[in-house]
């Protein structure tokens, strides 16, 4: 698996393009503010066909350019729980996001649940519902490749905030315990902010400082 990452927008959100090999299908993860030109260039450079956009959760900074891809006929896939924020992206924290222009919403083509899987070419991702940072946070884990898109659940050196509207600190602890128990230590994680491709084993001690 090849994962290209870039960091975009007012709160430095990571966008990923995930593929097996050049010339094949690709998955776009979390289309952040200002990411579209980079995504398009990454797809073109590697001669990739985007199969879908996957959003790890519904926070504005992770879904703001989903409409760009939906307008180009690319289906948006998301987990259940934050779908209203995809339909009406909400910059719920002006102190973080300023007052951006209204963001067109999208209707997810697939709403997935805990334990569901989706395939992109030969890659198969299993979904783990990991609420806490928001109700609709999901981890997309490719067990075979040992890679996981973790959104704002866990970072290289920390965890996602739980002081936002609809956050749940209690759910966050349950989700972290479950994901740390489930993913092997050598799994590489791709968070929504900060460094990526660190292992669960490297990230766990930092996460435990907040647990
Ligand atoms: Zn978030």
Ligands, deduplicated:
zinc ion
Compute the CA-based radius of gyration: 16 Å
Largest sheet: 6 strands, mixed
Approximate strand percentage: 25-35%
Whole-number average pLDDT? 95
Instruction: Give the domain tally.
Output: 1
CATH superfamily: Ribonuclease Z/Hydroxyacylglutathione hydrolase-like
Please state how the strands of the largest beta sheet are arranged side by side.
1-2-3-4-5-6
**CATH architectural arrangement:** 4-Layer Sandwich
Topology:
Blueprint: E1 2-8, E2 13-19, E3 25-29, H1 36-45, E4 49-55, H2 60-63, H3 66-71, E5 76-79, H4 83-87, H5 94-97, E6 110-112, E7 117-120, E8 123-129, E9 138-142, E10 147-151, E11 154-155, E12 158-159, H6 169-182, E13 188-191, E14 198-199, H7 200-208
Parallel strand pairs: 3-4, 4-5, 5-6, 10-13
Antiparallel strand pairs: 1-2, 2-3, 7-8, 8-9, 9-10, 11-12, 13-14
The structure holds zinc ion.
Descriptors for this entry?
211 residues; alpha/beta; Metallo-beta-lactamase, Chain A; six-stranded mixed beta sheet; 7 helices; 14 strands; 25% helix; globular; binds zinc ion
């Amino acid at each position: 698996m090849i994962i290209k990452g870039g960091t975009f927008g007012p709160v430095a959100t990571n966008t990923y393009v995930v593929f097996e090999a050049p010339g094949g299908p690709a998955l776009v993860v979390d289309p952040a503010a200002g990411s579209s030109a980079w995504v398009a260039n990454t797809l073109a450079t590697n001669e990739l066909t985007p199969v879908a956009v996957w959003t790890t959760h519904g926070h504005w900074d992770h879904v703001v350019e989903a409409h760009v891809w939906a307008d180009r006929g690319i289906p948006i896939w998301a987990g259940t729980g934050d779908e209203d924020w995809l339909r009406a992206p909400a910059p719920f924290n002006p102190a973080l996001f300023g007052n951006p222009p209204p963001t067109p919403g999208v209707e997810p083509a697939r709403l997935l649940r805990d334990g569901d899987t989706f395939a992109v070419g030969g890659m198969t991702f299993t979904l783990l519902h990991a609420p806490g940072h928001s109700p609709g946070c999901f981890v997309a884990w490719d067990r075979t490749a040992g890679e996981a898109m973790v959104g704002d659940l866990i970072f290289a050196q920390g965890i996602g905030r739980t002081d936002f509207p609809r956050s749940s600190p209690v759910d966050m602890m349950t989700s972290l315990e479950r994901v740390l128990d489930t993913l092997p230590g050598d799994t590489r994680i791709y968070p929504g902010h900060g460094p990526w491709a660190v292992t669960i084993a490297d990230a766990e001690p930092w996460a435990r400082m907040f647990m």
